[in-house]
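Quick entry between incubations.
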Amino acid sequence: MRAGPLSDHKVIALLNAYYVPVYTSNEDYEAKSTAVSAEEKAEKQRIFVEFAEAHMGTGDVHVYILKPDGHALGGLDIGSALDVKKLTSLLEKSAAALDTPRGDPVIAPKVTSVAPPHGADDLALHLISRGDHTGTPHWSWREFPAENWFILELAEWSKLLPPKDLPIAPGAAWELDKEVMAIPLHRFYPQTEETTDDARTQIERQSVRAKVLSVEAGVATARLDGMVALRRTNTNGKPDPNLIEATLVGSIQWEGATAKGPARIRLLQLVTASAHHGAEPFEVAVKSVK
Amino acid sequence: MNDSIRNRLILGAITSAAALFASASLAVEGAGAAPAATDARPGLSVFDLSDIAKKAEACSASPAERKFDQIGWATRILDAEKIAREHNRPVFLFTHDGRIATGRC
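Done. Structure below.
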């Protein structure tokens, strides 16, 4: 949907001009989830039941159109909604049936993938993954890059810096803390089908070493070289037989390198120099965000 | 950027993953060690720090891949319904598995 109808200029214009659009991840509405309130869960269930009782169609992956009073007006199953013409027709007919006047978006569009709330002492990392999308079949999850956000607390990102007893000068080298580095490295795989938050990555080998290139006015820059090899289980719970392997390069720059006071990471970036899932190449980049 | 940073960072080529992952190399490096990335064999890519930043940027979603963000989305159903009542507009609700904004869970 995202790379298809929800990227179509006419669909975007209709949604902004006549509708209040909202998307929901089903996992957030499961009983065990605390991502949304009980009232929010109940409202989604109410909508589902109302559409079912009205024989207007329901589904986990589905488009529902509600009247301004919240009651059922229409909908489309995902197969039909992926057809831009069918979705456009539904949007046009529904707005016309309600005599909804054309207007500006009632919610300002904004970037939807942003860092979770975090404190000033935290380090936010943004990961982007791109797999090959030129072959057949054209899986929908390969139509745009996948992203992850990680928030490292001070106690975590501090472990990425060199040991206190290591003199900081060009050539100084150390291994970045494996436990902390594993946080982003768990996500060094190409876009794939992901329907739950279940942990499905097992890192078999990993290493990221740093070597100081320069120290200027208390700011040190080090080059990073590393590798990761990991395995994943598929959404059906079966192990993916293909090993995921990547060589990595990056840099870390931090303040307070020569002082006894607190240090602060200015920049951490790590990209795949080469990466394969089985025989398939992919790319991942992770970078700190201010 | 000083001279030491300008020194080119010789890395395994993007197209030469197999060579870089040669098991012999990993065995030599031993457990917990990163593979050396100073191989200057012909055909290997060369990175410096700006190249790393460029590659990170190149990985990012393009504007064409972010058209989804041109839509003014509400964050919750109840929020959408409240705004719908206030503006007398219908609600477009898309329910799905996974995370459409990131492609990851």
